[in-house]
Write a structure and sequence with these properties.
The complex is a heterotetramer, with 2 copies of chain A (290 residues) and 2 copies of chain B (396 residues). Chain A is α/β, with parallel strands linked by helices. Chain A has 2 domains: 112 residues, Rossmann fold; 151 residues, Rossmann fold (3-Layer(aba) Sandwich), CATH 3.40.50.261. Helix content of chain A is 34%, strand content 22%. In chain A, the strands form 2 sheets. Chain A has a 7-stranded mixed beta sheet with strand order 3-4-2-1-5-6-7, sandwiched between helices. The longest helix of chain A is centred in the N-terminal third of the chain and has 13 residues. Chain A is globular and about 55 Å long. Chain B contains 13 helices and 19 strands. In chain B, a hairpin with a 4-residue loop joins strand 8 and strand 9. The chains are: A alpha/beta (290), B alpha+beta (396). At the A-D interface, helix 2, helix 3 and helix 4 of A face helix 5 and helix 6 of D.
């Protein structure tokens, strides 16, 4: 059991003929993911490494291969369109890696997705992995191992660090979901915590949050009322100066709710232990599970 | 990316917003010329810096006020002479203040009433929001704290957009009636069009004023843009260079790096924004301060790495450098090659601590070792931070 | 009983301080309609004829007077906004008289109204009347008399002619609805025929159609399958040259379906008698009811 | 309101659509000059009229073809001389044809494949629709009749607009692949933007062609605009005068009247479009033909009524005039006053029949009676039509 993806997930890679698309399509294949199709408009009929057929559209890819999840590497100006194309083709899970999509594009995309079945992860995210089953994203596969901890994060490389610390201690992961660093994105922290709560394979939850927005507070409120699974959290950006953009467009502190302090208080009020040092995420999680 | 007030005014004027006549000036003589071209009195001279609280600010020279009313062009010239080239300290600049290189000289209409109006993206509701208050001209955060009921918000459906009736309802909630109701609603509609068509991230008019003759005027405007969308607004993107006051940030911008200059002593190069923030956090926990935020990202090439490392090495505040890479898209060997190349141009003046993990980390470590350069390696994050802090203390 | 409006309908007139708004607000009041409020932004606080209060917005008017229907005279550039204002304020019936609204504005308006409870009649229409009870529109009141015929029309003055011929013969009307001459509008012919079918006060139905569009065909198809009430129809524009705009923007014949011939065939196929001369609408209706 | 091909090209070019270079010319010399400024050969000369079927058309002079290929500027000049000032008859113009006062001279790229592409408002679905076919360059109505499966449609949600992926899907359905797929999709996206931003009612590209070097080109464009929206497109509204060939219609346009010139003998002035059409219909049932459609509407003032009546009286084809008013917004007394004023300027040359009903009809009748003018009145529609037809026969 897992959330979002498993061995049966069939992936189409949008932007497969681009540099990042090709590199990560191969990496996902190497990990064992069923990458069954690629899409690059105008390149229909080609093949990647003589095994993954490339189509002009997601609709054609779906008809030919039955793909049910999409991994998007389309550059920022066309990424919103790529997301909506996948949704219109009836793809149930869309993982958008693309960085730098204008905020208003995502506002429009999410308005279009409203009321639809499609789940969007990202953009500007590392993707999702269920270790030893399916990797749809850009995370290094080898740092993961199967196990009981569900990891949800707004960051990319910081998640790798957290996962690495867990795996080094022998603590495996049920699924790891990077929801992305942009201010307006798909699946939220609370929703993923809710999925982990309902997932029998997940025994404990790790949240990697950061400055900006209000999602940590929502996740904390959900956990407090509706979950008994062990949990721990780390928050990045305690030292970030207010008003400046720290790489992630979503990580600008614009109001009091966005500060690490406010989020830490919310976690503490919910009874969620907050790990203070990024070097102690593994040990902190082990403590929470003890 | 926030722009200067004079730039914001120019952009807003194209949308027909009611902006008192005025112009930017960068010398006392130019300020006088601008003043002579304006018809109404009094005039106002405003220091152009990217921080608020200018009115109550003070120059390091002792001159008070970054916003000054003047009766005639001669007085404008005198005030301009006092401000230009000075450093203005306000509640928002920090004690180091900001250099004043440009002034706005404009007509100062007689204000009857001050309102507040802003448009921004509400990330929780995933749509644009209008924020207004009948208490403008003051710090809106303070109004939000003390009189939250005096702040009024509406959310705009991004599909159907803002309709004039919503703008009128909004203006009515700000207490406007009669012809002012329609004029203010028109301002709101135009401002929303500006916001959407230019990918603004924030437009804040404070105050939006009711002035003499039942008119509405934009007295001060703070405008920020979505950096992700600058690719479709080349003109606005062109403002960027004028805006950067920190020379390190100017260098980083040219190399397309995510860099924020800070005031600490440890230069950091990290991949990924979250990891970069966490790295800054752990330095602080070790009792040190980062000299910068620098995320080399996943897509950087070797040349960018060379430049990034060069910026850290050239920073006189830096006492030690911490390179922290968890390879994902980014390959550790590329980072190592970039460092070696940068160090071949200039000898390191400060100790360097490196932690590599993830994609190709072994190859990266080998490259650094083979180079024979005096680089300390660390195995985990705690070790890396401690070594960097210790090295900075030795160097200091 | 009646459709759409009756003695309990409380009307707000949008654009009441304009020339047409004032004239027709008075005419409606004279007819006995409860015109309880007017709206002109910036004129809130005034009164029409010292009895109808004017407000800055429909929302204010509704809160103060409980109005539940709106009659719109706002000029074309602001009419779409006025319709949406009324809908947003929760007005259940909106009658838009305004002529000359751009088609794309109406497309946007109808997209916004989708899924809402609000009913829109028009634009570019004479309005709706239930004789001796309530008139929300610009039709001359005196030509109507209460009775059994439900009249639905795409035209204005041609409806007056038809009603006049009915009344001259002593045939009264249950309700008369002008749905408007624009290509994209609110309530359609079929929907009104459906309402008449369900209205106990209506014993027979008169359709006044014209060139352009497909609504006559839809109404005919509905009547054939779902109505047994006597019916007759007249169609204007048999002599109109194709491709030219005959006053009504909707009355351009752009395809075969829009011709009088095609519509006449649809009516005949459904068993609906078609009155051939506009001078014989009264006698034709009497024949259909005999 | 449809515009000439050369106007459509100018407007579309601003949206970056791929249009072969060319220009309008109104004299043979100018046509030659345009041709000399163009680089590729062959060239095409196209008569500018507002009707289709030009290629197979024939001039009253006997010259055949309203669209002619030419090898060089001299040949262009010759063809232009034959066309300009002539009258072109096509399947769509009727036997009287249309005067040719302007030509388009353009490069004629070599066509590999012809497609069809149109955007219009679907009144039933209440949204814009894209219509395409891989069989372009021919009469699309015929394709629709004989091979309906070769016509492909998609409907656009007016809220979210047309996204590029939809345009690509559309292009794929037209049989395009590879780089042509992306190029055609780009054309569709730009054309949709043009359609929305200019309140077009119809944009029809027939053919949209695949030409040499894997390029796409707009070979012929028919563009119509929503007359209700011209108030926000002053430039397009300015085209209107150039477009009107009927002098009566030009007069009516100046007076802001809904007028369509027809070829019958009975001049009509009616209020309301439906009643006006019904009046035309009953005239035909009485064995006569209307000289025009004229709806004075509800908002006309007395001056417009005077002008409207003046146009009817000045029309040499008119044998009798039928005035048919059912007052609603329009008051019968205003109509009567307008007629009396018009008749005070010019004596009537033909019989006039009037039927007044509705708002203020009694006052209107009285005004006409008091004027002492030779006006026949009718009590109902049938009577009015019969009198008008009988009067025309007497006069004829």
């Amino acid at each position: 059991m897992s959330i979002l993806v498993d061995r049966s997930t069939r992936v189409v890679v949008q932007g497969i003929t681009g540099k990042a698309g090709t590199f990560h399509a191969r990496a996902c294949l190497d990990y064992g993911t069923s990458v069954v199709a690629g899409v690059t408009p105008g390149r229909g009929g080609q093949k990647l490494d003589e095994r993954v057929p490339v189509f002009d559209s997601v609709a054609e890819a779906k008809e030919a291969t039955g793909c049910n999840a999409s991994l998007i590497f389309v550059p920022a100006p066309g990424a919103a369109d790529a997301i909506l194309e996948a949704a219109a083709a009836g793809i149930g899970l869309i993982v958008c890696i693309t960085e730098g999509i204008p905020t208003i594009d995502m506002v429009r995309v999410l308005a279009c997705l409203e009321g639809k079945e499609t789940r969007l992860i990202g953009p500007n995210c590392p993707g999702v992995i269920t270790p030893a089953e399916c990797k749809i994203g850009i995370m290094p596969g080898y740092i993961h191992r199967p196990g009981p901890v569900g990891v949800v994060s707004r960051s990319g490389t910081l998640t790798y660090e957290a996962v690495w610390q867990l795996s080094q201690r022998g603590i495996g992961q049920s699924s790891c979901v990077g929801i992305g660093g942009d201010p307006v994105h798909g699946l939220g922290l609370r929703e993923v915590v809710e999925m982990f709560e309902g997932d029998p394979a997940t025994e404990a939850i790790l949240i990697i949050g950061e400055i900006g927005g209000f999602e940590e507070q929502e996740a904390a409120a959900f956990w407090k009322t509706s979950s008994r699974k062990p949990i721990a959290a780390f928050l990045a950006g305690a030292t970030a100066p207010p008003g400046r953009r720290m790489g992630h467009a979503g990580a600008v502190i614009t109001g009091a709710a966005g500060t690490v302090k406010a989020k830490m208080e919310a976690f503490e009020a919910a009874g969620i232990p907050v790990i203070l040092s990024p070097a102690e995420i593994g040990s902190g999680m082990a403590r929470a599970m003890a | 990316m926030n722009v200067f007030e004079y730039q914001a005014r120019d952009l807003l004027a194209r949308y027909g917003l009611p902006i008192p006549p005025g112009h930017v000036a960068s010398s006392p003589e130019e300020a006088r010329q601008v003043a002579e071209g304006l018809t109404k009195r009094p005039l106002v001279v405003k220091a152009q810096i990217l921080a608020g609280g200018r009115g109550k600010g003070r120059f390091l020279s002792g001159f008070t006020g970054g916003v000054r009313l003047c009766g005639d062009p001669a007085q404008v010239e005198g005030v301009a002479r006092a401000m230009l080239g000075g450093v203005l300290v306000t509640a928002q600049t920090g004690p180091e203040g900001r250099p004043v290189n440009r002034l706005l000289v404009a007509e100062a209409p007689q204000i009857v009433r001050e309102l507040y109006l802003a448009i921004l993206i509400d990330r929780e509701r995933r749509c644009p929001a209008l924020v207004g208050s009948s208490r403008g001209g003051v710090d809106i955060e303070e109004v939000a704290r003390k009189n939250p009921e005096e702040i009024y918000r509406i959310w705009i459906d991004p599909q159907s957009g803002l309709w004039p009736y919503q703008a009128r309802g909004f203006a009515a909630r700000l207490g406007l009636r009669g012809s002012l109701l329609n004029r203010a609603a028109d301002v709101v509609v135009r401002l929303y069009r500006f916001f959407c068509e230019n990918d603004a991230s924030l437009v804040e008019i404070n105050p939006l004023a009711v002035v003499e003759d039942e008119e509405i005027a934009v007295i001060d405007a703070k405008v920020g843009f979505d950096e992700n969308a600058l690719f479709r607004h080349p003109e606005i993107a062109g403002y960027r260079e004028e805006l950067i006051e920190d020379t390190r940030e100017a260098e980083a911008m040219k190399a397309r790096l995510n860099y924020v200059g800070l005031s600490g002593e440890i230069g950091c190069m990290v991949n990924g924004a979250g990891l970069a923030m966490a790295t800054m956090d752990i330095l602080q926990r070790c009792g040190a301060e980062p000299a910068n935020f620098l995320d080399v990202g996943g897509g950087a090439d070797q040349d960018q790495v060379v430049k990034a490392f060069g910026i850290l090495m050239a920073d006189p505040k830096v006492r030690s450098i911490l390179v922290h890479i968890f390879g994902g898209i980014m390959r550790c060997d590329l980072i190592a090659r970039g460092m070696v190349e940068a160090l071949s141009h200039a000898k390191p003046k400060v100790p360097i601590v490196v932690r590599l993990q993830g994609t190709n980390f072994e190859e990266g470590k080998e490259i650094l070792q083979r180079s024979g350069l005096p680089i300390r390696t660390a195995d985990d994050l705690a070790d890396a931070a401690e070594q960097a802090v210790a090295a900075a203390r030795e160097a200091g």
